[in-house]
Amino acid sequence: MEELIRLAPDLVIEAAGNESVLAHGPLVVASGIHFLPMSVEALADPRLLTELTELANQYHTGILIPSGAIGGLDVLRASRARGELNEVLLTSTKPAAALIGQPFLIEQGISLEGLERAVSVFDGPASAACIAFPKSTNIAAAVSLAGLGFDRTRVRVVADPHILCTTHSLQAKGAFGELQLTLRSFPHPKNPKTTSLACLGAVAAVKNVGAAIRFI
Question: Does 195 have pLDDT greater than 80?
């Protein structure tokens, strides 16, 4: 990482997991380099989020959050800025087979073997969701950062034995009105653990940094 820092890039993108954000994020930001973590869920750690925020302010750089496989973050940010955002609910409906073996489900005694209908396996704050499903809650983290924060953002995880792709439904209410958005994203053909849209979102974020016309 020190060798990379010496090259003085404008931007460093993390794509190696939550541990990498913790290990290298502070050094990157303290070096005055913009930092784009693909593992957004790592920022559910309040100490890490505070440290990175303080370093970004001190060294006049930024933490860039990719939208990933969800939309509507602009609405959350705008309504939050005026104090007009009251409720946010993210429902992630996943193929049951993709959730089998998750440590949280094992600890809770939840079995998905032979499941015949969709069932809710988690319903709680995003802060708890990121702990329960540490490798599949990047969208919950991005929604939390854009909106009401990790403790006030509600997340539901549903296991459905009849689907092959994950569906994310975002609902938000407040004085601004209501937001309802549903997005069904396909797995990346070379890495089924992520989606094509998540990868495209990172590319779009990088292009936006140096674009003459930027969406903010």
Answer: no
